Amino acid sequence: MSEKVKIKIARNVVHLPAIALRGLVVFPNNVVHFEVGRTKSIAAIEAAMHANSSVFLVAQREMDEEEPALRDLYAYGVIAEIKQVLRVSDDLVKVLVEGKTRARLLELDAGEKYLQATVRPVAVRGIPADKRNQVEALVRSLKDCFEEYLSYSPQISKDVVYNIVSSDSPLYLSEYMPANLLFKYEDKQVILNESTLLGRLEKLLTLLRQECQIMDIERDLDDKVNARMDKGQREYYLREQMNVISEELGDAEDTRAEADTYRGKVKALNLDEESTEKLLKECDRLARMQGSSAESGVIRSYLDACLALPWHTATEDDLDQAHARKVLDREHYGLQKVKERILELLAVRKLNQDVKGQIICLVGPPGVGKTSIAHSIAECMDRKFARMSLGGVHDEAEIRGHRRTYIGAMPGRIISAITTAKSTNPVILLDEIDKLAGDYKGDPSSALLEVLDPEQNRTFKDNYLDIPFDLSEVLFITTANDASTIPGPLYDRMDVIELPSYTRTEKFNIAKRHLLPKQLKNNGLEGRVTLTGSALYAIIDGYTREAGVRNLERTITSVLRKCAQKIAAGEAEKISVSAAMVKELLGPEKVKPTFISRKDAVGIANGLAWTSVGGEMLPVEVAVIPNGTGKIEITGSLGDVMKESAQLAVTYAKVHAEEYGITPDKFKNIDLHIHAPEGAVPKDGPSAGVTLTTALISALSGIPVNHDLAMTGEITLHGNVLPIGGLKEKSMAAFREGISTVLIPRDNASDLYEVDAEVKEKVRFIPVGTLSEVLKHALVRPGRTPARAVRGVPQATSLIANDKPAEGHKEPAAVM
């Protein structure tokens, strides 16, 4: 007998997908719609739809439980049939179900996809014969209590009212009423758990009476509150109604409420007493104005600008050295000295969190990565980043803001950058600071003195805000192509980091690791086009001549566009670009060979020049014209300083003529023509002295000059060689042109520490102290012994500031 019972129970057990409901209890014979957002619940609906559309719905005990287990669910639920499913989005589904059978939860399998429940249907026990009268009395009491409930809650649907009033079925009422009345889900679950119809009706009646009592108390409380409303409150409501009427009629707009809102926001800022008082005065002014007046709009804009500033919002610095090095190496190839300088800065900030006044100036030719370095610093430190370009800014108000007395006044660029960054300690990049301009409206470089002074920017006052804002936590980074054009007081406030020109090998690696993958992705050619190493070198050598890599990237993009055209036309599926194909795609080489002496020649010496975009080779030619009158002609767009160097060279040649086999009276019978090629480019500076003297002595003596040697240095009247600036850029130019030996002033030997290691490996640097040493190495004489090369020194010195570009030129001047 026991075995038969077990078999019968086992047959009644059902395995169904289950959904745990939050704050909802479903009853049999009721249609309910609800939204499902949990992944497992959506999967359970899909599984039910694929099977027989039946699903087990059970309420969970705690609404905030995301992954409910068996202990988190109630014992009784409902087997429901899914009528309709509407997918609103990927993570939200609307479901319409109809409850069918009350069931008890036996087991729960919380699988990976959805909940699987083992349930047994359990019907409500019927009414015993001796309890029928009691049940009928309970039904009547329920309907009477429901009528009282309606008097407190008239918003119940007419359909619900009709179904309850017109039905006399105890079972129907025990399921329909709790399903459609506003009871707490815990109370509804108590009714669903009840297995006897009599007990269910008794609990439902008790629950309904409790709700009527509570609603009666709420109505009494509302009446008491309304009765106690005093005259002032009634006047307030009447006044508000009048304001609304005035707004509708367009007569006036009361701004007092708006001013109160601003006043609350100002107090919440917790500023210093003076600033708070000033802002509150503006709120009071706004309250006294008509909303349609122009002045009220000005005050609103001012208060909005002040409230938008991140007064007390700051990010936490990430000063981890390993993370910083990883970011810098990922974004930039080479620039080792620059990276080390940035890591040193982060290390100091890690040891001293209160360090102030670190204002960095990145100086270098265009396209070497100054702006991207600033981005990387912000990423290393996990700070917000804002950029403002200063190129061509000539109005002081662009920096400090306009006073509010002007129409259209607005905050300056500094405050705007802070507002955009939404942080009191962002990294702000002041781009192209060497290109600031000044006119009758003021000098913006002078306005930056306060911004970039750690002692002053703690209380920076924008003309528009007119209240102090602390800029001491901001890390300012400036960029410049030519530091010599930055005003001295402004330059003195910045920590200068120089970014050198890229070598040929560095450009190749940058193109291979960064530029080419980026442009392959941008042009949709990943996996379809490859550029060989020889092709990249062909582009670098034949089509770009620059200190940075901007033109290199543009040229690579041009090659890829032509490849994309061939692939789109069906001419090829994959293309591997070789060095020979580069010329076919781009045409003849655009970079022409630099005019320098390529063989030992008389009267031609190779000099080195500095420009704002890197170093350049600058040869000097001297021609001796017989049957002359001692006239000296100087051409090549030379500046005054360079012309004076030519006069010094002539004087030195006259004094030391006999040492080089030149007769003293030769100068009387000849004319001299000194020329620096590329006459359209302005040239100035004292460091061409050694080059001019060498070319002059060679032309007069007939001794050729070594073509594989370049030189730089200023000379004195007695033949001493003085130090120069820009050695790093000049040495890069010699390296680029394949010069093997460079003569430098002896006092510049310490500057070799700053020269790139690759350059020092390929180029011999010979320090010289006098012109006689220069001529000894430069003039090609039989039996000459080359001097020992200097590869570097342990300590670097600052550049001598005597190599500045000439002022007043539109084209970038070459500084010898």
TrEMBL record:
One term of GO molecular function: ATP hydrolysis activity
Pfam families in alphabetical order: AAA (PF00004), Lon_C (PF05362), Lon_lid (PF22667), LON_substr_bdg (PF02190)
Domain Lon N-terminal: 16-212
UniProt keyword terms in alphabetical order: ATP-binding, Cytoplasm, Hydrolase, Nucleotide-binding, Protease, Serine protease, Stress response
Subcellular location: Cytoplasm
Induction: By heat shock.
InterPro entries the UniProt entry points to: AAA+_ATPase, ATPase_AAA_core, Lon_bac, Lon_bac/euk-typ, Lon_lid, Lon_proteolytic, Lon_Prtase, Lon_prtase_N
Active site residues per record: 687, 730
Residues passing through the membrane, by range: none
Sequence ranges assigned to domain Lon proteolytic in this UniProt record: 599-781
Protein role: ATP-dependent serine protease that mediates the selective degradation of mutant and abnormal proteins as well as certain short-lived regulatory proteins. Required for cellular homeostasis and for survival from DNA damage and developmental changes induced by stress. Degrades polypeptides processively to yield small peptide fragments that are 5 to 10 amino acids long. Binds to DNA in a double-stranded, site-specific manner.
Protein name (database record): Lon protease
Provenance organism: Gemmiger formicilis
